[in-house]
Every structure is written in structure tokens, then in C-alpha cells.
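Hello,

Our lab assistant flagged a job as stuck in the queue for most of the afternoon. It eventually completed. Since we weren't sure the result was trustworthy after the delay, we are filing this so someone can double-check. Below is the sequence as submitted and the structure that was eventually returned. Let us know if re-running is recommended.
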Amino acid sequence: MTTETLAVLAVTVTAAAFVQGSSGLGFALIVAPVAGILDPGLLPVFVLASMIPLNVYVAWRERASLDLRGASWITGARLAATPGGLALLLLIPDRAIGLFTGAATVLAAVVSLAAPAFAPGRAAYLGAGAVTGLTETATGVGGPPLALVYQHRPPAELRATVAVCFLIGEIASLGLLFATGEGRAEDLGWAALLVPAIAAGAWASRLVHHRIDARRMRLFVLGFALVSGLGLILGM
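-- returned structure --
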């Protein structure tokens, strides 16, 4: 990896950590398309590994607002769907992983923007967990289904619950990827190297997360996802 590529990734993960630490979503939607453009081989391990320290921090910071019931249903479905995400990754040719990630990002953003408000129940939790298990294991992008479920809940509840669901799911996906030989150790190294950048973004989010306009931040994240996802598709 060149110095220029590493610098771009550092700026990207800092901004993404700030956005997700503030709003509860957005890290993978921001990082995955950029990583895919720079080096498709970074997907999905680099994105999954990069999110772990961020989600540990957010889950601890917002622990009082955790929706334990929802997180339990989502996590159960997410873990059950993880092998399906691995199968999906194996079916996608290496040269097409960036294209698939771009398409998944754009579709997720469009669905998130168009979905009406609703009160989530067990079926919604299970559906969100299953879709997240498939897409996050295959591409690193898994936030939009969880955002759909919690988008009309208090921001602290969204941040806490999404962080816990992500954290457990990321560890499970990484474990399965490496157990089956689909993970690259060097991608863990790049993620570890960028922990200070992630920490900087997470620390900055601490200053504003309690007063940020969550609706505007959500629209910004989804708009960025649309543009970057389309850029990834057109660049393939």
C-alpha cells in the first residue's frame, strides 16, 4: 500500500468514525466504497476490523440506552446468516467485489431514504439481523438494515444497540473468514495501523454526539453513500 493510499484511508476512517460515533451509523457506508476504489482486496476484512474498536467505545459510552431485547433478536439472526454471507463472498469473483459493494451501498442508501416510519417488532429485528449478516460478511456494509429499524428511536438507543450488534457480528464474520482462509492478515495490520485515526474521530464525536442533528447527519451519510457507491460502480 502506498503512502498516498494510507493517507486517504486515514482521513476517511477518521471522518467515518466521527460520523458513526455521532449518529450511530455511516462508518462502513463511507469507508467501504473508498477502500473498494483504492484496493478491492481490502474488502471486507479491513472494514470489519476497523469498526471493532469504534463499536467497543460507542457501546460502552451509550450502554445505558441499549435495547437489549432488540439487540438479542438481531444478533441471533445475524449470527445465523453469517455463513450465508461467506457463501455469497465465495460466489463473487475477486474482480467483481468492488462492483458488488458499490451496488449494495447504493441499494442500501436508496432503501434507507425511501422507507417509511414504522414501529419495529420481532420480524423486523430478525429481518434486519439476517440481511446484515449476509451483506456485512460479504462486503463490510451492514448498517442500513439496522438504521431502518432504529431510525425513529432516540439517537442514544440507536447508537448503543447498533454498536453492540455490529461488534458481535464483526467478530463472528472475521472469525469465519479467517477460519475458512478468506481473510488476509495484512488487512488486520492496516486496520491496526489506523486505530489512532479511528480513535481521533471517535473522540471528536464525544464532543457533539448529544446535540447533533441526527436527521441531517443521516441524510449526509446516505447522500455520500449514493455518490461513493456510484463512483465505485462506474470505476469498475
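-- support follow-up --
The delay was a queue issue, not a problem with the job. The result is valid. The two ends are 19 Å apart (CA to CA). The first helix runs from residue 3 to 23.
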